[in-house]
Amino acid sequence: SFSPFLYLSCLGSTIVLPFTCLFISGVLGATPVEIEHHLEMGRKLLAAGQLAEALSHYHSAVEGDSKNYLTYYKRAAVFLAMGKSKSALPDLSQAIQLKPDFLAARLQRGNILLKQGSTQEAREDFQAVLKRSPNHEEAHDQLSKAEELELLQEEAHEAHHRGDYITTVQVLEKVIELSPWDPESRELRAECYIRLGDPRKAIMDLTPATRLRADNRAAFLKLSQLHYSLGDHHDSLNQIRECLKLDQDDKECFAHYKQVKKLSKQLDSAEELISEQRYQEAIEKYESVMRTEPNVAFYTNKAKERICFCLVKMKSAEEALDICSSTLTDYYKMNRIFEPFHFIREGLDRAQKLLKQSRKRDYYKILGVSRSANKQEVIKAYRKLAQQWHPDNFQSEADKKEAEKKFIDIASAKEVLTDPEMRQKFDSGEDPLDPENQQGGGGGGSREWPFGFNPFEGGNFHFKFHYN
């Protein structure tokens, strides 16, 4: 509805445009009472923490009276409460334009600009406040911070220019403390972390940087590439999709998206096959993974580790021993190149366990009997093989050593399979003759590393992260 006053004004001016007049009266010509109602509701809802509802009322108040500097200022306060500093800036600027001596708005705008790293503009606002109010304590403090920030920004860029990335990171720590909403400082620190071999910290800086710029496709792409290099293919896929939301025709993002999507699908499919105990198909799928991404060590080792797991499950002892040993060797190599990230430590542990499983003696296979063989059948097979592989039957030293090993395995197989308790343990996946199992599984003992070398004791290992 519109008031009689507005109706009369329409009659007095342009009676031939009633709908235009109605629009003007309904939106642009709200009465002071209506505007005050919106402001009061906005204030109450803001106090109650109902920010979206409060903002709606302040929108109506601004539309009703676009010349009221306080209305813009109050709406800016709601935007700030919602964490939308970018949206608050235009309202603060409009309030200042309508009332140049409105010091509260200048101070608030200066504070936002300082946090965004815009030191020159922030300094101008603080100086304007001090010009009208020379003893304004907060303006003095913030002006000092703006001047300090300028010096720190310059120092950080100089350190970066000369390739001193450690110093750059240290200085940027102070810069970001003063200007947490500055994407440029976070992106610069992320680049330094990458060069220093700490991609996880780079990710921590780039993640907020994507939200601090309106169109930060470069940061989304870099985030996706970092996650991908670390083996976080799902996170990589999520980040590259964010890039394509901003521009679906971005060539770099689309090319990377196709690669990540293909690899991620293969990895998920392989794990699903393993969960269904379709181990041979899972092996083939992981072989596809290695063909899709042969250049990132994480995926190659992950694939070999899972193939090792499948072969152990399939009881393909010789093949399992070969690839499990190779996987463990690769993890040791990675540990010498990378600092011990959690995935390398976990990979080493898993590879060791799988290698141990692949090396376990299959007592049924040693004696050539079925798992349902009775005691008499076991003893019969034992006697035949013991006679065949007795060391006295061999002449050369090499043949004797091989026979001794086989003879010990045959004797061990007979011992386990003729003892009901030991046989039950073996059938449940435990080797009763394994010294570690006899000591309670080795849970409290020290880990045995090849050649007495423990890669996690002593030594400094540096992760060399190559990023293009």
From TrEMBL:
User: What region holds the J domain?
Assistant: 362-430
Give a Pfam family name.
Answer: TPR_16
What's in the keyword line of the UniProt record?
Endoplasmic reticulum, Signal, TPR repeat
Provide the residue intervals of the TPR repeats: 69-102, 103-136
Q: Which GO terms describe its biological process?
A: protein folding in endoplasmic reticulum
Q: Which SMART domains match?
A: DnaJ, TPR
Question: Cellular component per GO?
Answer: endoplasmic reticulum
Region Disordered: list its residue ranges: 419-453
For bias kind Basic and acidic residues, which ranges apply?
419-428
MF terms per GO, please? misfolded protein binding; protein-folding chaperone binding
The listed locations are: Endoplasmic reticulum
Top-rank taxon: Eukaryota
PANTHER family in the record: DNAJ (HSP40) HOMOLOG, SUBFAMILY C, MEMBER 3B PRECURSOR, LD25575P
**Which protein, by its recorded name, is this?**
J domain-containing protein
User: Source species, please?
Assistant: Cyprinus carpio
